[in-house]
């Protein structure tokens, strides 16, 4: 990669259950770069996300998320953002300086990925319906900041990771 690219993060965005963490880890290994999952950073520093939502509300969580994103984007790493990170206008502005990979997934595929997951925004009787509403609201923001889009609905995630690595090499 060229030297200007060396100071940019590779950032995975997309809805919950799209595979940002799984694919991001594989891409990081392929590039020999550190991997940062901003949700994991928040959990490590503040406890489980459902507890943060319950005790302090979504606004507090979003402030913690913004700080984690800002710190992660300051590194040369592969970064996985939480699904709602793009809601922050400063984050969307910051993403312009990085290579942004948007992972998308179909509702039928995501159903098995979010079932029994600790995801407060899709808790309840109709997690897929809640996911679909959240995704519909955020989709224009994902599309706005993305440099490239990959669908993770079918096939092994290793194939998507390889496709991302191929795109990064072509983009270098």
The total number of structural domains is 1
Order of strands across the widest beta sheet? 2-3-1-4-5
The CATH H-level homologous superfamily:
P-loop containing nucleotide triphosphate hydrolases
Radius of gyration: 15 Å
CATH architecture descriptor name: 3-Layer(aba) Sandwich
Rounded mean pLDDT score: 89
Q: Tell me how many strands there are.
A: 5
Main sheet? Answer: 5 strands, parallel
Given the helix and strand composition, which structural class is it? Answer: alpha/beta
Report what the structure shows:
The protein is α/β, with parallel strands linked by helices and 172 residues long. It has one domain (5-161): 3-Layer(aba) Sandwich (Rossmann fold), CATH 3.40.50.300. It contains eight helices and five strands; from the N terminus they run βαβαααβαβααβα. Strands 2-3-1-4-5 form a five-stranded parallel beta sheet, with helices on both faces. α6 crosses α7. The longest helix is centred in the C-terminal third of the chain and has 19 residues, at 127-145. The protein is globular. The N and C termini lie close together (5 Å).
């Amino acid at each position: 990669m060229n030297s200007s690219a060396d100071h940019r993060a590779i950032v995975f965005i997309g809805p919950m259950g799209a595979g940002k963490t799984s694919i991001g880890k594989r891409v990081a290994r392929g590039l020999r770069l550190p991997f940062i999952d901003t949700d994991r950073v928040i959990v490590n520093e503040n406890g489980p996300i459902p507890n943060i939502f319950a005790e302090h509300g979504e606004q507090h969580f979003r402030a913690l998320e913004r700080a984690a994103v800002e710190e992660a984007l300051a590194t040369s790493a592969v970064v996985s953002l939480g699904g709602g990170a793009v809601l922050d206008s400063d984050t969307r502005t910051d993403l312009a300086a990085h290579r942004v990979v948007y992972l998308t997934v179909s509702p039928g595929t995501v159903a098995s990925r979010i079932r029994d997951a600790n995801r407060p925004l899709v808790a309840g009787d109709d997690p897929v319906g809640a996911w679909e509403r959240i995704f519909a609201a955020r989709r224009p923001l994902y599309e706005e900041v993305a440099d490239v889009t990959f669908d993770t609905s079918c096939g092994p995630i290793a194939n998507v990771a390889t496709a991302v690595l191929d795109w990064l090499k072509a983009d270098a």
